[in-house]
Amino acid sequence: MLSSRVSLQPEITREEAWKLVYWLQDNEVRQYLSDTQDVSFSLMRVLERVNLPVLTHLFNQNGRFFMIYTNSAQAVGFIRLLIGELETEIVLVIGEKQQWGCSLGSSALNEALQIAFYELRTPRVIARIKRSNIRSLRAFVRAGFKPDHDTPAFFCLVLTMDDFLSQPVRKQADRRNILLTELDRYRLASWINHHFPDHFSLNWATRGLSH
Predict the structure, then answer these.
(1) pTM of the full predicted structure?
(2) Please, which residues bridge with residue 82 across strands?
(3) For residues 32 and 162, what is the distance between their CA atoms, to the nearest angstrom?
(4) H-type helices in the chain, by residue range?
């Protein structure tokens, strides 16, 4: 796999949800989002009403939600994947302002793209980025995103699965790692067990395959 400075954690606790409220109330963070301050207010109302230690199900409606953690176990932001039939929209926010400019967004974007293309099998990923958010624009372009269309307020960038898989660094990484869905794993294991029952065995890693 490509090395990463971050990990994406799918479980969202109450403590993490309150951290999201804190980030979304910060004008410097929120200025780059299309959402208004009502989002943080609505989230506060939910937290006051729902007394559960884990709130993952509330964040995964219409998609997938991840907290971004550094390798030193610090929560620094979040990623949301809004899953559609033909495309998946990505929203990436680094909420810890002292971590801006440290390339954590680029690392988190790479992790999220692997989930979008390898696990969700989405044909393409789109991102709507405010024109003033130069740092994010650079990160998405470096990741291979290309202009699709724009509005007076936003650039709309897109990365297709074909373009993602054809990236030179991706090709090199994919020679060493094969990422499979549960269905892929089942089909491959069934085929191997049928044709080579005594000559081949598989060791399944969390996100890869080795033999």
Answers:
(1) 0.76
(2) 63, 89
(3) 29
(4) 14-24, 27-30, 38-49, 56-59, 104-114, 134-142, 161-166, 168-176, 182-195
